[in-house]
Amino acid sequence: MATKTVKTYCRFCHAYCPMEATVENNRLIALTPDTSNEMYGGYTCIKGRQMIDQIDHPTRLQQSQKKQPDGSFNAIGTELAMDEIAARLQSILNSYGPRSIASYNGTYSYQNSAAHDVARAFHAAIDSPSYYTSVTIDQPAKVAIGPTRMGWWNGGSHMWNDSDVAMIIGNNTLVSHYSIPGGIPAFSPHNALRDGKKRGMKVICIDPRVTEVASRADLHLQVRPGQDAAILAAIIAVILADELYDKAFCLEHVEGVEQLREHTQRFTPEAVSAAAGIPAEQIITAARMFAAGPRGTAVTGTGPEMGPHPNLLQHLVQSLNAICGRHYREGERLPNPGVLTPMGPRSAEATGPQPQWLSDGVKSRVSEDICETVVLSPYGPLKEMPTAVISDEMLLEGEGQIKALICVGGNPLLAWPDQEKTHAALSGLELLVCIDIKMAATAQMADYVLAPKMCLEREDVTLLTDIWHDKPYSQYTQTVVEAEGDKIEEWEFFWAIGKRMGLNMSMTNGPIDMQEKPKKFDLLENITRGSRVPLQQIYNTEGGKIFDVPDVILDAPDPTTRGRLQLFPPGLEQELSGAYSDMKSSSTEEYPLLLISRRMKNTYNSTGPELGLLKSKGTTNPAFMHPKELAKLQIADGDIIEVHSRHGAIPAVASASNDIRPGVISMSHCWGGSPDPTANADQQVREIGSNTNRLIDNLENAERYSGMCRQSSIPVAIRKLS
Ligand code: SF4
To answer: Which of 281, 340, 376, 466 has the largest count of CB atoms under 10 Å?
Structure first.
């Protein structure tokens, strides 16, 4: 028997842990951590180790599927399916125009390093702005609105490994395996946290739960949900009032300090303490501990970014980092300017705000206030439409209405806010195509479901995480096992459809060959052209490696290009007033509890619950509550309850948990099934969980610019179901 061991990396989530795969006659027989890897030290988690089960799982699609008139699905050859899809897309394009064709590129589309660039090339070729991703469901403020309004520091912010302090707001990296730089790195997060603490780093955690991170923090503010912006305003007010900020940095690089001081001073620790349900002294201690630094940043997780006032919260987090000067300065070495990103000059200076990005883009048809967002990437600004209102763009009749949706590696029916509306929107499409490894809830609504290769069945490079590491690290993996049957990669779909439609497709660095299907390596070389380490060198390296590249030392600011970080952009005064008013009205008598989101160890959004070992850890997303809260309502651990909001109601399994603040329910998102009553999803709450997006009206509190709606800190009430 031919047995080989291949170094590869996991793409179950965004952490990209290195692994060694043992393969016998093209079958994956073992998957173990790559203990020789110098960056991760052999770290993997329970999810990634289930990929052997996942690759051969009975629910895995082995062939593409086409919906029949009676609603059932029949297998169809992928080439034939793409012939039919291309013809239908062409017809929709001719009838309704470019904007009617949309793609939604979900969480798993990011795990294929060529998928987004080729999908964007397809959109550019048909002139359709209707490009949507999962990043604008949960963090548009962080990746787009925040930097656009305030500007950004070209040298980046302090990273975890050279920080003295970190303020972590609603981010539980030990479970989520995700953080932006500055927070606990997702790459072996337990080691990173332990090492940080060992060298004396102070960790401040703001979270309504005693999470895995909070329990290890030096200071935990166990806050009432929804008050993060007010708490940040109070922390900034203390730092400015006590003159603990970096005056020299602000004088040279920051605008609007005095206005921010004036408008945050009413957020006194005492006033915010009452709203946030924590002692005022904790706010003062957190402010002083963070300001003492002298190095380290504040970061948010997706929970607070999905709560009230996300634009304001993100702005205040960036402002806190700016007034404390938590950026790399002239003469300092950047820990990781990227391996796959282009080598460019770097100066210790700010790029100022880009207000035109908030006004010049394609407007949402839902509201003039909502428009295309501009996401900053190492390759420059990238435009995308905001997913929070995509269902409305499908339902709203008239020019520009979305008629066809290509859904790549996502499960909108479970993931998009306002599940009933999402269901109506998807039902009304003329064409729905899903690329999915299983017949997930959305795939069951599709006209075509294409069977994709899974991560170990394709070559890839760590493009997504390139600048998240704190060292110049990268890994190229070869295909570990050849996919059996008629499966394709996500980028191949867009290329094949483009070829059938006679399109000329081009990526940022050059055209794509539309005659001969390009090799993936060639596409990736196009995407990473000019990278600090040539792709070929990474390709030739076995396993992941920290590359020995020349240091990048920040130059002095260039007087001809330097900008200033703007702490008081237009609209901030009103946003602060809104947050101040909301300090009085988070929950009500009718809806006395606040529902927050959380991550669970055994799932990654809607992926995982079907896999053997992960399934054995639980098949539902319990409604975690403090035992006192359950006792008050005479609800026992394991009872079925109804959680209802102003907008909807869902069943859930009650679960007692001492780690959660009384008055709060914590549930994971992306569970459950279709809201269509014939699907009987509610009756299966113990088997499939339930969908918190049914509790949300996506247009209630829609955030300016991004349309972001409140998906965490939702006022709810509960009752026991018989
Ligand atoms: S954290 Fe787990 S799921 Fe994520 S990449 Fe690592 S092993 Fe895979």
So the answer is: 340
